[in-house]
Design a protein that fits this description.
This protein is of the alpha/beta class. It has one domain: Aldolase class I (TIM Barrel, Alpha-Beta Barrel), CATH 3.20.20. Helix 2 crosses helix 3, helix 5 crosses helix 6 and helix 7 runs parallel beside helix 8. It is about 35% helix and about 20% strand.
Length: about 290
């Protein structure tokens, strides 16, 4: 299945994180306005730093007001920007800041595509505000649809001040993702699924994730190889053969994006080109490790 809505095709042409060809003439900015997270992934350790190049990391967290100032400067530094999104360092729907920012961005810069990346726990309950922000593209990280698998990847969820761990937390997250993706699809959002390929845990499960989320309304998938870290530092990284097997299984149901750059939560510019984050936030010194935001 591929996106067929006319507006989806137009978005694919402009959004480098969704386009299969990753066009070199269009850029995006990730605004780091999400200060907290509501799930506890075992492979993820987010942080604030200027010297770690990985998703889930940013030099600092901005307020919505600061983000507007950064957006103004970013458009001067990188006039090719077509997308303003929030991908961390926490989850954009774990607090009000991300959507407050995107609402303000949409009002001041209506020409930009607004985008967010979330684990989906707060997706359905945020749909009214997502509409106000004019969000057109949505990435939902779905790592398992079987609670027995998911609880090996996620220690639990925090919802309305209540922590649910183990199987209960896994069941709740899966249900929230289904409800949220279905509702987002009904609102005609272009939806991409991110899945972290974790050997020995969900490596045989990616085809089912693609098939199921396609039925819920997803149009694309991105499979991210695990970099062993945090509680899962003892696991091996996926081999190229394991990655290709997972991609082949997923492609039976969804197109799979193969050129993800795994960018920081404050990246700015054309992926693979000059990152203007240094000019916006200070010097960045890349390292080999990252976690998944």
């Amino acid at each position: 299945m591929s996106p067929t809505q006319p507006n989806h095709l137009e978005i694919l042409d402009k959004h480098p994180c969704f386009s299969p060809s990753c066009p070199t003439e269009h850029g995006r900015i990730h605004l780091p306005v999400a200060p907290r997270c509501n799930i506890f992934c075992r492979f993820c350790s987010r942080g604030l730093s200027v010297d770690v190049e990985r998703p889930g990391n940013a030099s600092r967290v901005l307020s919505p007001e600061e983000a507007l100032d950064i957006m103004s400067l970013a458009l001067v530094l990188s006039p090719e920007l077509k997308v303003a999104g929030v991908a961390g360092p926490g989850d954009p729907l774990a607090g009000p800041e991300a959507l407050d920012t995107l609402i303000a961005i949409k009002e001041k810069y209506p020409q930009l595509i607004t985008c967010l990346s979330t684990n989906g726990l707060g997706l359905a309950s945020s749909m009214e505000k997502i509409e106000r922000a004019g969000v057109q593209t949505l990435t939902v990280t779905v790592n398992a649809l079987d609670p027995a698998i998911l609880q090996e990847l996620n220690l639990g969820v925090l919802e309305n001040g209540v922590f649910l761990g183990g199987r209960d937390g896994a069941v709740r997250l899966i249900a929230a993702q289904e409800e949220g993706i279905r509702r987002a699809s009904e609102k005609n959002l272009l939806i991409k699924i991110n899945s972290v390929l974790t050997p020995g845990i969900n490596d045989r499960h990616l085809g089912q994730i693609a098939e199921t989320t396609q039925r819920w309304g997803a149009s694309l998938m991105n499979i991210i190889p695990l970099i062993p870290a945090h509680d899962l530092a003892h696991l091996p990284a996926p081999t190229s053969e394991e990655l290709e097997e997972a991609v082949a299984a997923a492609e039976k149901s969804l197109p799979v994006k193969r050129n993800c750059r795994r960018c920081r939560a404050d990246a700015c510019g054309v992926p693979g080109g000059v990152d203007h984050a240094q000019a916006l936030y200070g010097e960045l010194r890349p390292q080999e490790t990252f976690s998944h935001g």
